[in-house]
Amino acid sequence: xxxCGIVVPGLREETVSNASYAKRFDRVFDYxxxxxxxxxxxEQLSQLANFSKFHFHRQFSHYAGISVFRxxxxxxxxxxxxxxAFSQGRIIDIALEAGFESPESFSRAxxxxxxxxxxxxxxxxxxxxxxxxxxxPMRTRxxxxxxxxxDFPETRVAVLEHRGAPxxxxxxxxxxxxxxQASGLSPVASSDTFGIAYDDPNSVAPxxxxxDIGGTVNAxxxxxxxxxxxxxIPAGRCAVVxxxxxxxxxxxxxxxxxxxxxxxxxxxxxxxPLFFHYLNLITAVPEHELITDIYLPLRSL
Length: 301
Description:
Layout: H1 11-34, H2 42-49, H3 56-64, H4 68-86, H5 91-97, H6 103-114, H7 118-123, E1 147-152, E2 155-163, H8 169-183, E3 193-197, E4 210-216, E5 229-233, E6 236-244, H9 250-265, E7 274-278, E8 291-297
Helix pairs in contact: 1-2, 4-5
């Protein structure tokens, strides 16, 4: 409320209107992410948001900072980048899946988006362009997330320690996948995959960022050329929230735990970092089908 109890006409109405507007665009974003492989029309998306199709282009561009067609194309190109880096699919097939009629048009668009041709990216991926803060619009979810408190068991993991820019985590992930495939000690089909976040990427310099990529193992891993080492995620109480969809938006769910849930819970944090349990991987499912449990370690009662 404004100072001295003075009510400003329209203030509350404007706040409600902004919240409603955000929810309508969230429906559009969610639909695009879930139907990325299908044809998407302005008429279809405008109806979903209950906006006039004659104004939807301008409304979307004003809200998201880029046009709806550019947003869809960038999402398809980012999804193609995962296929290029983590699968052996033919480039022509990846181009068709991304909605392009020819490898040439796909190559031009891909290079325009990230500075590399698809072939160059496959050989040596440069992930930084996809991690730019202005590449995709920020989404503010206006909703309450379901948080559970669980007893997490002690878990032995083999990890590759990523040290450096957050944008390069996928390069470390690819190296960890190589170790998994070469060693057979932490097979994806029967092992769980974890990430341990020692730092908030928004709070430290890129070169100081620390993140472990790991998989469960049954025995100690011997010294190896990949630099994979043995660690343990300790047993203890944890608050856990489930994040659905792109890993690029997981900070929204993590910040919800810290900023919304923790102050109201009366809980105290334990001396172990936030960690992620990846229930499926981008190598196996489309980006919008990703499921990740985010764990916040808590002190014992």
